[in-house]
Amino acid sequence: MLFRSGAIIRSATLRVTTTKSSLGGAENSVFAVHRVATAWDEMAVSWAARTAGADWSVPGAASPADFSSTPSSVAFVTVNGTYVFPSSQQLVSEVQSFLDSPAGNFGWLLKTQSEATTRTARQFGSRENAFSANQPLLVVAYDVPPTLTALPVVNREFRLSFSAAANRTYVVEARDVLGGG
Questions:
Q1: pTM to 2 decimals?
Q2: Which CA distances in Å does 125 have to 17, 30, 87, 108, 136?
Q3: Could you give the count of Cα atoms lying within 13 Å of 68 in the half-sphere of its Cβ?
């Protein structure tokens, strides 16, 4: 991620592009983004295996062992095209977690909510896709908290200074005694 540690995520959307649909005509379906719960290897992943030496809990993966049962965001998918999974409290929380604890970022899984319905399978563009327009795109809006700078104490007084963003409200609180909680 290109933003710095300590940033506060305000919104996040995920844009994906379907590049292939089921033969014989695709059925419309609601797809959900689910946070993956365990490490997997991009070069070795398959229907049965998540790494060269470890399988998913069941072929195809299952919640909660392999991915969160709570959808991060949902989108209605019809024919091949570009779809946006809108910002949600869950999606924002997960992006914040990815930023705060990168070691726990195993990405997301896209899953139809109509698995029992035939012809809902889709192929989505990946980062390796030759056409950059088909690559997934995570769009994040965030704030960077101001950085406080303490100036030297002069005549038993000290001053704090910080850089602030335009059109934002800031509140400065003070106490007569430090250490009071």
A1: 0.79
A2: 6, 18, 20, 14, 7
A3: 16
Query: Residue 96: CB partners within 8 Å, gap ≥ 6?
Result: 8, 9
Q: For residue 163, what are the CA distances in angstroms to 2, 8, 149, 175?
A: 20, 16, 9, 22
Amino acid at 79: V
Amino acid (1-letter code) at residue 89: Q
pLDDT tens, N- to C-terminus, the chain (181 residues): 455 678 899 999 999 999 888 767 788 899 999 999 999 998 899 999 999 999 999 999 999 999 999 999 999 998 888 999 999 999 999 999 999 999 999 999 999 988 888 888 888 998 887 778 899 999 999 988 777 776 778 888 877 777 777 787 888 777 777 766 5
Record the tokens describing residue 9, joined without a space.
Answer: 């995520």
